[in-house]
């Protein structure tokens, strides 16, 4: 699996507990791409604005999934737990046959 990572400059200023949350979300997303895809390419980006809003995007070229599968599973539960800890919101864009995109946004 080929992995591309893009980390914005402001992301290095985040506190260690936030960095841990980002790490765990990305870690679980990569595992999901590997196990459930399997995806050939995964793109990861994280950006933090000057206002302190952080966005994580993980997308892959795997087979995608239906809405029904997005709501269950251990991996989803782990991601949801970290999104809650970070007081963020999660969006998923996936259609069978067209990859998977996870976007998590949370405040400073």
Describe this structure as you would to a colleague.
This protein has 108 residues and is of the alpha+beta class. Helix content is 34%, strand content 31%. The protein is built from 3 helices and 5 strands; from the N terminus they run βαββααββ. It has helices spanning 16-36, 67-70, 74-85, and strands at residues 2-7, 41-48, 54-60, 89-94, 100-106. Strands 1-2-3-5-4 form a 5-stranded mixed beta sheet, covered by helices on one side. β4 (89-94) and β5 form a beta hairpin. α1 packs antiparallel against α3. The longest helix has 21 residues, at 16-36.
What would the keywords be for this entry?
single chain, alpha+beta, about 110 residues, globular, about 30% strand, 5-stranded mixed β-sheet, 3 helices
List the helices and strands and how they pair.
Elements: E1 2-7, H1 16-36, E2 41-48, E3 54-60, H2 67-70, H3 74-85, E4 89-94, E5 100-106
Parallel strand pairs: 1-2
Antiparallel strand pairs: 2-3, 3-5, 4-5
Total number of strands: 5
Q: How would you spell out the order of helices and strands?
A: EHEEHHEE
Instruction: Please tell me the overall pLDDT.
Output: 89
Alpha plus pi helix count: 3
The oligomeric state is: single chain
Q: Over all CA atoms, what is the radius of gyration?
A: 13 Å
The residue ranges in which pLDDT falls below 50 over 5 or more consecutive positions are none
Biggest sheet, strands in spatial order? 1-2-3-5-4
The rough form would be described as: globular
Strand content: 25-35%
Structural class: alpha+beta
Biggest sheet statistics: 5 strands, mixed
- Secondary structure: helix percent: 25-40%
Distance between the first and last residues' Cα: 32 Å
């Amino acid at each position: 699996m080929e992995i591309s990572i893009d980390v914005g400059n402001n992301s290095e200023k985040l506190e260690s507990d936030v960095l841990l949350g980002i790490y765990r979300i990305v870690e679980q997303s990569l595992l999901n791409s590997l196990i459930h895809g399997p995806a050939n390419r995964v793109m990861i980006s994280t950006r933090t604005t000057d206002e302190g809003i952080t966005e994580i995007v993980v997308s892959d070229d795997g087979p995608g999934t239906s809405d029904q599968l997005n709501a269950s599973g251990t991996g989803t539960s782990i991601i949801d737990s970290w999104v809650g800890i970070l007081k963020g919101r999660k969006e998923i864009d996936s259609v069978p046959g067209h990859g998977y995109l996870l976007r998590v946004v949370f405040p400073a």
